[in-house]
Request: fold
Amino acid sequence: MSYFDAASGAPLHPVARQALQASLDEGWADPGRLYREGRRARMLLDAAREAAADAVGCRPDELVFTTSGTRALYDGIAGALAGRRRAGRHLVVSAVEHSAVLHSAAAHERAGGTVTEVPVDRTGAVGPDAYAAALRDDTALACLQSANHEVGTEQPVAEVAEACRAAGVPLLVDAAQSLAWGPVDGDWSLLGASAHKWGGPAGVGFLVVRKGVRFAPQGPVDERESGRSAGFENIPAIVAAAAALRAVRAEAVAEAVRLRGLTDLIRARVPRLVPDVEVVGAPERRLPHLVTFSCLYVDGESLLHELDRAGFSVSSGSSCTSSTLTPSHVLKAMGVVSEGNVRVSLPPGTGVADVERFLDVLPGAVAGVREKLGAPVAPDAPGTLAELTVDAVGERCPRPVIELAKALPRVRVGGEVTVLSDDEVAAVDIPAWCWTRKQEYVGPAERGHGVVAYVVRRLV
Amino acid sequence: MSYFDAASGAPLHPVARQALQASLDEGWADPGRLYREGRRARMLLDAAREAAADAVGCRPDELVFTTSGTRALYDGIAGALAGRRRAGRHLVVSAVEHSAVLHSAAAHERAGGTVTEVPVDRTGAVGPDAYAAALRDDTALACLQSANHEVGTEQPVAEVAEACRAAGVPLLVDAAQSLAWGPVDGDWSLLGASAHKWGGPAGVGFLVVRKGVRFAPQGPVDERESGRSAGFENIPAIVAAAAALRAVRAEAVAEAVRLRGLTDLIRARVPRLVPDVEVVGAPERRLPHLVTFSCLYVDGESLLHELDRAGFSVSSGSSCTSSTLTPSHVLKAMGVVSEGNVRVSLPPGTGVADVERFLDVLPGAVAGVREKLGAPVAPDAPGTLAELTVDAVGERCPRPVIELAKALPRVRVGGEVTVLSDDEVAAVDIPAWCWTRKQEYVGPAERGHGVVAYVVRRLV
Reply:
C-alpha cells in the first residue's frame, strides 16, 4: 500500500509517537493546578509552546494551541474581525482558500459583514496587485493561504503582507499546508496551522496573533490559552505536535529536494502516459510534495476506487468523490478541468519505486474507467454536420463532457455542438475542456428547469 | 504521591492507553476519504460512536464527538438557543453550573438574550419547583448539571426534565462529572460530557442532541460530525475515550460503593480531626468519589501547598488559589464558607490507606497555616465590650474572618463587632462563618471606595 494523501493528513511521525507516549504519563493533569502533576503538565505545555513558536518564528506568548487547524482559522478570523470592528466589516479572502476560511467568510456575511474574493490565475495563484486592489478603507482583515491544499501552488504571501501593512490591514495566513516545510515569509499578522498535516496527532492546531494586532475572542471563553482557546488542554497531543514539527523541519530541506524530484517526475510523465490529461497548479512556485492532474472523461470516484484497488491512496477535487455535486471550488476558481481529478501528495520518505509503480498503474486505471464510460479514444477527422445538439440532461460528470467529445468530431471545423446539461459541474468542465483541446467555448444559455445549453465551436 | 483531584481530570485509564496505541496505527487518516486508510478510520469512528451512545443511552446518530466538554457545552447551548429562536431568547441555568455553561450564558446576554439563574440550597441542590418556576413562555433552553463539580451534589435532573417537558423547553444536561458512574436519568434533550473526567484522553467531548430537538449549529461549520463539530476528527483519542468509558462503567457499581465508603470516612472524620471546619455539599445525594470541606482561618493556596508537600494533590474553590480574587461561584451560591476550601475527588482504585494517610496529614497542615496567619485557636469566655470595630481594609481572605473571630470574644453576648473590609470574599465568608458558628449576621453596609462594614452580633 502507498499512501499518497499527505495533504489530508500524515500518519503519526515516530518522534511524535514517542513524545505522545512519554507525555501521557507526565502531561495528563490540569496545567492550571498548583500541585505536582499540574506543574509538570504546565512545564510540558510551556516547552511545547516554545518549540512551536521557534518553528513558526514568533514569540511564545503570541502562539496558542487550538483543537484543530479549522478551529484556529475560525477563531482567528472571528477574533481579528471583532478586534477591528471599528475599521469596518469588510473581509478579503482569496477564491482558493481552505473551506474553513470560506465558511468563516460565509458566517461573516450572514452576520452582516461583506466579503471580497480575490480571483486566481489558471495556476491557482493570486496576483499581489489584484489582492492589494481589493483592500478598502473598511477592510478589517485579509486572509491568504501560504500554499494551496489542492494544487500546491504557493501564494505571494510576503508581497501581499506588504500591501496589507501599507493599507493598515492585518493579514491572516493559513499555513496548514506549508508549515512543515518552513516558516512563512513576510510580515503577516496572524497565522493558523494544523499538526496532523506534518505528522503530529489530530486535535492540535496553532493560532498565532502577533503582538499589537487587535484581537477580541468571540463567543464564550475561559481562562485557558490566554483566553483564546477554550477547553482543557490536550498536552500529550500538543507535545507530540511540537516534537513532530521539529522533527520534520530537521529533514525539510533535503526532503523537499527529493520529493520535488518525484513530483516533477509525475508532472512530466503523466501527460505522456495518459491521453487527455491536464496537470494543474503552478509548475515552479509550489509545494514540493504535491501534484494534481485532471483526466478527461473519467469520474473521480471510479478512478480513486481503481487506484485504491491497486494500492494507492490519493484524493480528488472532483465533485464525484464528495457528497455534494459541486466541483472543487479551487479547480472552479482556476478554470481548469475538474473531472477525473487526482491529487497526489507524498508523505516524507516516499521512495522513487513507489512513484514508478504509481506511474505503471495509472494509465490502465484511467483507461479502464474510460472504457466503462464509453469515452472517445482517438480524435476523428472533421465530420460534415454544421451543428448538432446533444441531450445530456440527467447525466452526471463526466458524461456531459464525454458526449461533447464524442459529438464534436461529427461537425465540420467551424460547426457547433450544443450540450444540454443540468449538471453544475458542466459549467466548469466544458469551458475547461475547450481550453485544453483548443476548441472555442461560445458560451452558456439558460433553458429553464436548471438546464443549460453549452455551445462549443470546432476549431481543430 | 496521592492524586485526589479526579474531578479535574483523571490519568489515562490503562484500557484507554491500549486503545489509543492501537488506533494510532489504524485511525489517523481522514474518515471522509474513500481509500483504505480512510475506510479503516471511519470504521473505528463508527464503532466508538456506538459504544459511546450505548454508555450514554442514546442513538449513535444523536451523538457527535467534540474537542472538549467545554466545546460540547458551548456549541450545544448556542445551537439549541438558535434552534429555538422563535420561542424566545430566555435561558435558564442553575447558579452552580460549570463555568462553561455560565460563560455561554454571559455570551448569550451580551448578544441580547436574557438569563435566569436558579438559586441552590445550602447543599448546592436546586429545588425542582424553583427550577420549574423559572421556565417562561419565551424560554428557549434550560441547563442543569447532573452533579456539581465542586461539591459533588447530585441535581434532581429527572424531575427538572419532567418540568421542562411539560413546559415544552429542552433541557441540556452537563453530565461531565457523573457520566463515568452511569447514564443520566430522565427525559433530557441535550447532553454534554468530557472524556478526560473518566480516564479518557483530553481533547474529546460528547454532544448529544436527541432526535426532534430543534438545533441550529452556530458560526462556521463544516461537514464533519453531522455539521455539529468542525475540524478533523481525532479518532485515536475518540476510540480511547469510548473504551475508557466502557471500562470504568464495568467497574462503576462496585467502585462507587467502595469510594463512597472512603468519602464517608472523610466526611465523618475531618470535623473531628480539624476544628472550625465545614463539610459542604449534600451528604447523601452526591457523587461517590467527591467530598469538599472548608477550613476557617486558612487560605486555600497555602493549604494546597502544604498538602502538595505532603504528597496530596487536591483542588480548591477558594479565591486564594485562582488568579482572580472572587471566590468560587458555587460556594458563594450555596452560602457556605469558601476560605480554606479543599475538594477531594478520589480516582478509581484509591485505597483506604491513602485516605488514612491524608487524614493523618490534614490536621497538621491546617494547624500550620493557621499558626502562620495568627488564627484564633480556642473560643474565649464572653468579653465586656458592647461593640467593637475592626479595620481589615486591604487585607485579603482569610484575614477579615480571622480578625472577626479574634474580636468577637472581646464583646459580651448581645454585643456587636463591625468588620471593615474591601475584600469581595468577605461578603461570602463572614455570613457563612456566622452560620457555622451560630452567631448572628446583622448585615452589610456600604462605606464607599469599595469598603463594606459587616456587622455581627454575638449570640454564644
